[in-house]
Backbone:
């Protein structure tokens, strides 16, 4: 009986077309609404995906930036009154390739700054070491005076600032060996220069006409300039006191004939010979310009003599003494 | 057949119902179409707004500015800030600078390579600008905050 009733109802619904248009209209309206909403929804989803992708990329870039590790074992030194040179090596100790784009150099005395960008340093792959020396040294135009303290830093393409790291783990071994053999202070042979004066320069005399020769005139008052680096493995500063000097002795003389040039106060490119108790601190891991003189080489005149640097002072709180026999000088 | 047609023509019965139905159908179609157009314009406006908001957020996310060097000349009361656009998007302009949270004068951005004035920095480009902070900076550490035109902020500290 109920089955018969169902059949009757179905037949009535199929045969009676009233209300059919309403159903079609409703379905049509639903389809239109669905297509509208789904279009907007899918589009919103694509925009969100775009945003999330950017967030991921940005995070990755930040992560890469924080993982970048370039070690700059470099020294910045004076070439002449308008040029400074950055020598040493740059090593990529990080897991990613890196590009160094800019070098900044600042004269800490005058606060003059200069930059070089772009640099011709090739991209550094992980583990790569590039040497800045000779033709690959980076020269920067910067007005400076003898004795000025210079500092430098590099900027990588990712935006990291790479400060000068005077003693890296790798170089410590070499430096420590050098320091263990000859002492904690090393001298840059290539930057040995001198200044000549026909009469003894007084306080405030400006250093001009720097000479890169190994010949001096014995009757002239000579000021020697060397670049010394404190490589002490214990990490302490060295204070060079007034007893530090540069001395020469004539090997062919029957009697001992020596000349000495005492450590000299040079500030802002001017000499102050009357500072008799002058001392100079060599910060650990840093290079510094050190001057000796003014004095004549009359006793050594007419000979080629060995020139020594006697370095005496304090290493931390202890006494420190070192003598560097480093150069042969023709005293005319 | 002809007689039926003439009968329909002559008979006035149910004409009003037909007309009413026609009017009703036209009204429904009209209102439905208007609703559809309105919905479409609303969704179009929404997508435009949402799209530009997302695009602006993405651009802001891609902005990265690093401070290469900041130097304050206390004699001239002149603060020079050297920047680099290290992000992945160009057209990064500086709209404001705050020194110790104090807004400062108009910024004239210049390119580091040429010194030419520029309104913005492209990716990897370096630039600089100088301002005269007011009040002048005392000895100590000072915070420098720059705000880009897209609204990103970057902060550094300078020791004077």
Residues:
């Amino acid at each position: 009986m109920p089955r018969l009733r169902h059949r009757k109802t179905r037949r009535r619904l199929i045969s009676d077309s009233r209300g059919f248009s309403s159903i079609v209209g409703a379905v049509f309206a639903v389809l239109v609404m669905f297509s509208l909403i789904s279009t907007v929804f899918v589009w919103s989803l694509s925009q969100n995906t775009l945003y999330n992708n950017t967030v991921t990329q940005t995070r990755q870039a930040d992560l890469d930036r924080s993982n970048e590790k370039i070690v700059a074992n470099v020294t910045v030194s004076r070439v002449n009154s308008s040029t400074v040179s950055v020598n040493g090596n740059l090593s990529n100790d990080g897991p990613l390739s890196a590009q160094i784009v800019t070098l900044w150099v600042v004269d800490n005395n005058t606060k003059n700054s200069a930059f070089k960008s772009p640099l011709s340093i090739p991209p550094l792959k992980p583990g790569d070491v590039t040497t800045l020396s000779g033709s690959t040294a980076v020269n920067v135009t910067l007005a400076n005076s003898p004795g000025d303290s210079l500092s430098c830093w590099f900027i990588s393409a990712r935006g990291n600032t790479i400060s000068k790291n005077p003693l890296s783990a790798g170089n410590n071994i070499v430096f420590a060996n050098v320091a263990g053999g000859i002492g904690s202070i090393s001298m840059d042979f290539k930057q040995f220069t001198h200044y000549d004066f026909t009469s003894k320069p007084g306080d405030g005399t400006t250093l001009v006409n720097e000479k890169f020769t190994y010949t001096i005139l014995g009757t002239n008052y000579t000021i020697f300039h060397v670049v010394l680096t404190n490589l002490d493995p214990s990490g302490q500063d060295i204070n060079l006191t007034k007893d530090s000097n540069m001395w020469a002795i004539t090997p062919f003389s029957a009697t001992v004939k020596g000349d000495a040039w005492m450590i000299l106060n040079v500030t802002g490119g001017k000499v102050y010979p009357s500072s008799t108790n002058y001392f100079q601190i060599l910060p650990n891991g840093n290079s510094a310009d050190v001057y000796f003189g003014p004095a004549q080489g009359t006793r050594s005149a007419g000979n080629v003599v060995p020139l020594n640097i006697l370095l005496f002072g304090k290493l931390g709180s202890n006494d420190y003494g070192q003598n560097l026999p480093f150069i042969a000088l023709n005293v005319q | 057949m002809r007689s039926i047609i003439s009968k329909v023509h002559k008979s006035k019965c149910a004409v009003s119902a037909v007309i009413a139905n026609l009017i009703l159908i036209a009204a429904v179609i009209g209102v439905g179409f208007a609703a559809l157009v309105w919905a479409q314009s609303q969704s179009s406006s929404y997508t435009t707004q949402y799209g530009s908001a997302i695009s602006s957020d993405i651009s802001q996310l891609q902005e990265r500015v690093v401070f290469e060097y900041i130097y304050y000349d206390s004699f001239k009361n002149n603060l020079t800030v050297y920047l680099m656009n290290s992000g992945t998007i160009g057209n990064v302009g500086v709209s404001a600078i705050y020194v110790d949270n104090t807004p400062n004068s108009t910024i004239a951005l210049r390119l580091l390579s040429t010194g030419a004035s520029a309104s913005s920095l492209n990716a990897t480009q370096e630039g600089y600008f100088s301002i005269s902070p007011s009040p002048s900076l005392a000895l100590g550490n000072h915070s420098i905050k720059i705000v880009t035109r897209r609204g990103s902020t970057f902060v550094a500290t300078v020791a004077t």
